[in-house]
Write a structure and sequence with these properties.
four-stranded antiparallel sheet; alpha/beta; EC 3.2.1.51; 409 residues; FUC_metazoa-typ; 14 strands; 10 helices; TIM Barrel; Immunoglobulin-like; glycosidase; Alpha-L-fucosidase
Length: 409
């Protein structure tokens, strides 16, 4: 259950466009009036998306350092601007306007040359203000001008051109899968496309498909059920608590701490999910230093505790019944139960209510500490473990620790 990264989401702040032009929220209208000339349109933002500092090799190195196993680039969001030179998005793409670069191709090349991450692409089915989509919506989706001339051709284009291993679909526009011809596209993707043997997809392919159909379920943004699901799922969330894109006015408290992120990761993986962490780069192509720090911190934590995450499966219990913030995973190859605990007990002992230990057989290790730990059983179920007489700062990692237990039920 590897973590992943979703990057460059809402590259031209499409949510701002929705709030400003569609919903006409007062703060957004006033901001535009105060900071931009009269008659300024959303399309005028295109040349301002410059990406002059975009270094795909640097991005790839940061992504690798994060410990992620896959990356999903937002190739197009709901406002229709594509990060590649799509022939179906004339003059509204990163090759014709703004950067004058194929950003998808550049990042794909760097990720594949410099890392072992799987490369994926996010793609929005609908576009808020596209006249063809609006016409189809007015016709209650009895006509299909938009998907046949814009959305579906784009999907075929990115798969054929960039061969992503993940297609992260989004934005059904309240239209059914039959309008999007999702089953037709997916049949081609899995049977005839150049990635038919490697690709995986999510569940956002039309009204009624989310959390019901798909290679992995997303169910909702920031989805974290806290219990085991019978189908593979993903928690797609943001490091910025309030936004999927870069915010110039963000405060430090708006960003999740590394402790928050580790908690999200272990909760998600214990319940059978993957974690997809969103970062919002800047218009000039930078991953802001606060995002880079969080990503590198996550990589440092995984370097020590990765055995509790990579290649694991859910155990019979997901979290402990006695001590809060203890989450379990199982490593089938090693036959070990991993107990990740997020708070170091002042008492120096950790009581776990779930493991059934076997005297003379069960061994308990603290990842990053050489000696076996002593323990005593609490009847037929439960165990009390004596932790090393160390402060958390003396251990290889300070944001959560992993115990590995062998020969337990």
């Amino acid at each position: 259950m590897p973590p992943g990264l979703l990057t460059w989401t809402v590259c031209l702040c499409s949510l701002v466009r929705w709030y400003w032009q569609k919903e006409k929220r007062e703060p957004y209208v006033k901001f535009m009036e105060a900071n931009y000339p009269p008659g300024f349109s959303y399309e005028d933002f295109g040349p301002l998306f410059t990406a002059e500092f975009f270094d795909p090799n640097q991005w790839a190195d940061i992504l690798k350092a994060s410990g992620a196993k896959y990356v999903v680039l937002t190739s197009k969001h709901h406002e229709g601007f594509t990060l590649w030179g799509s022939k179906y998005s004339w003059n509204w793409n990163a090759v014709d306007v703004g950067p004058k670069r194929d950003l998808v191709a550049e990042l794909a090349t760097s990720v594949r040359n410099r890392t072992d991450l799987h490369f994926g692409l996010y793609h929005s089915l609908f576009e808020w203000f596209n006249p063809l989509f609006l016409e189809d919506a007015t016709n209650v989706f009895k006509t299909r001008k938009f998907p046949t001339s814009k959305s579906l051709p784009e999907l075929y284009e990115i798969v054929t051109k960039y061969q992503p291993e993940i297609i992260w679909s989004d934005g059904n526009g309240n239209a059914p899968d039959t309008y999007w011809n999702s089953t037709g596209f997916l049949a081609w993707l899995y049977n005839d496309s150049p990635v038919r043997d490697t690709v995986v997809t999510n569940d956002r392919w039309g009204v009624g498909s989310i959390c019901t159909h798909g290679g992995f379920y997303t169910c909702s943004d920031r989805y974290n059920p806290g219990h085991l699901l019978p189908h593979k799922w993903e928690n797609c969330m943001t490091i910025d608590r309030r936004s999927w894109g870069y915010r110039r006015n963000a405060q430090l408290d708006d960003y999740l701490t590394i402790e928050d992120l580790v908690k999200q990761l272990v909760e998600t993986v214990s319940c059978g999910g993957n974690l997809l962490m969103n970062v919002g780069p800047t218009h000039d192509g930078r991953i802001a230093v606060v995002f880079e720090e969080r990503l590198r911190q996550m990589g440092a934590w995984l370097k020590v505790n990765g055995e509790a995450i990579y290649g694991t499966k859910p155990w019979r219990a997901q979290n402990d019944t006695v001590t809060p913030d203890v989450w379990y995973t199982f490593s089938p190859k090693e036959g070990k139960v991993n107990a990740v605990f997020l708070n170091w007990p002042v008492s120096g002992t950790l009581e776990l209510g779930e493991p059934q230990a076997k005297l003379g057989e069960t061994q308990v290790e603290l990842v990053g500490y050489k000696e076996l730990l002593k323990w005593v059983a609490l009847g037929e179920k439960g165990i009390v473990i004596a932790l090393p007489q160390l402060t958390p700062k003396q251990l290889p990692c300070q944001w959560g620790w992993t115990l590995q237990l062998t020969d337990i039920n």
